[in-house]
Write a structure and sequence with these properties.
single chain; 349 residues; alpha/beta; 2 domains; seven-stranded mixed beta sheet; four-stranded antiparallel beta sheet; 13 strands
Amino acid sequence: MNQLDILLPFAIPPAEISADLLRELKTPALARLLSRSKSSRHGALRETFEGFHRALPHEIWLARTFGVGGESSPRIAHALMQSFGLQADEGTWFALQPVHIHVARDHLVLTDPQQLSISENEAQALYAVAHDLFGETGKPLLYGNTNIWFVRADEWSQLQTSTPDAAGGRNIDIWMPAGPGERNWRKIQNEVQMHWFSHTVNAEREARGAKPINSIWLWGGSDIAELPRAPYTNAFNFDGWTKAFATRIGRHSHADSAATALAETPQHGLVYLDTLLEPALSNDWARWLSAMQALEANWFAPLLDAFKTGRLSGLTLIASDDAHLRQFAVNRSSLRKFWITPSLAPLAS
């Protein structure tokens, strides 16, 4: 029978406005799934991430589940390279992203890289400059796409790095790479920043009101032995850097609804639904509500129906915010608890 795990980054609303947000939602299927789950009744499968972490809770969950977790950002550079058709059998490689860092009142802040809309021509021009600068230090640089490149730096193997989403919108001081090699990294980063500062690409971007590409972000370091394992039979909707996980699974595809995913009859499938992520990180709660309503129509309601028709035997919803992770496990027997009133309260409790 089919079992689906659904990862929902930032499905947990902020505590200070959760009551207002949940009151606005019209998601009866989600309410029923949550209230009749095992974890909502027994308080199990809940985790709080206290203190400083170099990845967001859902990123930590992915890294642990696929066996590439640790104190640093997920160790996914080699797997991500493979998703681009790039091979690197030796050495420590990192993901390298062109980014925009802006000056706040008294600190520097990383802008979400997905907001930059870098064209192929822009990326290639900036990459050529960075390629030569890294080459001068004996560090090969490879092009993945407009947003992600790769650099080999064996002597940085112990460097602690942070994911862009974890650092995004924050004072970057504590999120910068730290440990053996950090001074060397900052020197190269500064070199790239200086050469890009007056580059025609950025002059043209600023002329049309776009943010300049003024820095680079290093993370995801790994060696060839640190490839993710494949604990699922199917993966759905893994795009961007999360492709590093999906490519280790035999069957991975896009599914715009629960019906599409279940049509592939996964024995144990993992669905990554990140439509709440960007609205939450940008504090756009009206868009968050709209995205949640779309998830209700396309996923939660059809999944509830799939239990009734026997197409689904088990479901686990993995919800997170920037400091918590909660898992809600549902099966047919738990859904028969008709005396339990459907409620969204488990998301806020």
